[in-house]
Amino acid sequence: MSELMKNILKKTGLFLGIIVVLLGYLTINYMGFKERAVPILMYHGVGTGDSKNWGDMLISSELFEKQIQYLTERGYKVVSVEEVSERFRLNEDVEKYIAISFDDGYENNYEYAFPVLQKYNATATFYIIRNAIGNDGYMNEKQIAKMVDAGMRIGSHTMSHSNLTLIDESMYQRELAGSKMLLGQRFEKAIVESISYPNGAYNDVIVRKIMEYGYKEGVTGLVGVNTKDSYDQSPMTMYRVGVYDRGNGINDFAKTIEKAYFVGYFADKGIDLLKIRNYFANIL
Fold it and tell me: 27-60 burial string, b = 16+ CB within 10 Å, else e?
């Protein structure tokens, strides 16, 4: 073998060795990150319905149970958004914690999701549109009260589900403070301290307002996971990842959770993967 070939192989081996060490470090670092990070899963409908109206936002009750079973069998503690926030505030361990949230307050949440959560000793946060309570397709007061009595948490999804960035600021008092106050008065055990922004729309003014109105945390539609650092920096804009029915059952669910961790890991390093992806999508 020539000296040139020996040098090439030597340098190639050194390069591969560096790659192996780097991959090993990143793997260990990533696993360590996951121990201190909490995904919040965002659901809408669970059960049966017209796919034309729901699209992929409707999860069958069978698939929902498989998802909760998947989490519990892997040692996850399935809790509410409020419990995760409290653990961050108290600097308590969050390893293998995952939060469940439901937007809008649909009646099928009570009919299909609630029994599954009880079966697996799990809790969740249900974000309620105050003016929709009792309307066709939405939970009524008795159903919400029963869930609260069973340990579920409720939060505000505003009074009317208006896009907060498009309404006049004079409406903030009603939409934000009013919904919190009225839900708290009607469901005394609820302790309403969390809000979900309709359509994921918010801005700096809205964030300041919900802090003034006494909310402790807000959840967005931004993909990622939550750590104590991210929570301390901005408790009113917590990350969530949407759970949808893409047709591949539990495999899609597992990928959804890993996606949240993966995006959150790079965000923790100051790299916005979603922004990079959108940039290239726009220029290609």
Answer: eeeeeebbebbbbbbbbbbbbeeeeeebeebbbb
For 120-164, write each residue's pLDDT tens digit: 999 999 999 999 999 999 999 999 999 999 999 999 999 999 999
How far apart are alpha carbons 16 and 36 in whole angstroms?
31
Q: How far apart are CA 164 and CA 27, in angstroms?
A: 40
3-state secondary structure (DSSP) of residue 226 = strand
Query: Torsion over CA of 114, 43, 148 and 79, rounded to 10 degrees?
Result: 90
Poorest-confidence range of 9-18, 88-97, 233-242, 265-274? 9-18
Half-sphere exposure of 237 (CA within 13 A, CB side): 16
What is the reported pLDDT for 108? 96
102 class by beta-carbon count within 10 Å (0-12 exposed, 13-18 middle, 19+ buried): buried
- H or E element that contains 37: none
Q: What type of residue sits at position 103?
A: D
CA dist., res. 83 & res. 212, Å (int) = 21
User: CA 235, CA 243: separation in Å to the nearest integer?
Assistant: 22
CA distance 198 to 191: 20
Read off the tokens for 115. Answer: 């029994």
pLDDT (tens digit per residue) in 80-111: 999 999 999 999 999 999 999 999 999 999 99
